[in-house]
Amino acid sequence: MSPSHRIRRFLGAHRAFCVHAALALVIVLVALLAGVIAPMSPYEANLAEAFQGPSAQHWFGTDKLGRDMASRVIYGTRVSLAASIVLVLVISVVGSLLGVIAGYAGGLVDAVIMRVSDMMISFPGIVLAIAVAGLMGASIRNAIIALAVVSWTKYARLARSLVLKIRHSDFVTAAELTGARPGRLIRRYLLPNALPTLVITAATDIGTMMLELAGLSFLGFGAQPPQAEWGLMLNEGRAYLLDSPWLMIFPGAAICATVIVFNLLGDALRDVLDPRHAGPDEAVVELTTAPLA
Questions:
Q1: Which of 223, 242, 244, 289 reaches 20 to 30 Å from 111, CA-CA?
Q2: What residues does 68 pair with on adjacent strands?
Q3: Closest Cα to residue 93, out of 203, 193, 198, 204?
Q4: Which residues form a coiled coil (predicted)?
Q5: Residue 34 pLDDT more than 80?
Q6: How confident is the model at residue 171 (pLDDT cuts 50, 70, 90)?
Q7: In the chain, how many domains are there?
């Protein structure tokens, strides 16, 4: 079967995934090309044009300083999306590694990691994140760190449960009998089997983490003026909601659209990678259940 035929077959079997991936790609391109797409500078103030409604010159209107809201929303894609992706990468990598180690090692190592995880889960996540961000100071970087501190536990528990399912599989036992070291077992056998589920969770979490970051910025613990960030724009616009509703409508719509796209992408990716959730007529990628060469 030629590569082009395989691609066409994949596109036909996973149309929902292709559509949602294309939409996510558009959002990523907007973030990367914000400087080209934005009609004006997002930081250029013009008090003479403050609080202007949407028009041909200012697509999304202007804010209290006369800054172009369309440009700020476009640049906000870069800040919000980049921060969300970095956060998801950090919590998924750190949490997954800790979970795999806990599931494989067992004993005291497992107990310590899981008790720390239980302790973190016992507190409301957003409240603990606000406390951490408040101690460290308000900034987008500290907001990422604060959310990372409270969000890694999901991946740790998920990775641990996946490892426990395959820890005593025949191919893992065979690898141990051949003298494979723990590091090699984790790297070559345990992680590849847990990876599809972890990737699906990470893709869905991009939207969730974006909402969390926007929430911290809205409360004043994340991005700070004059940075173009969606949550901060909502905070700045709430005082003028009745007179200038566009100050909240467009950043809010951007958040909603992005979160929906990445949530749908995660669901579609699950159907591609996890055969237990795929439709009867879909070609799926089977999970690895044998030693890798």
A1: 289
A2: 62
A3: 198
A4: none
A5: yes
A6: confident
A7: 1
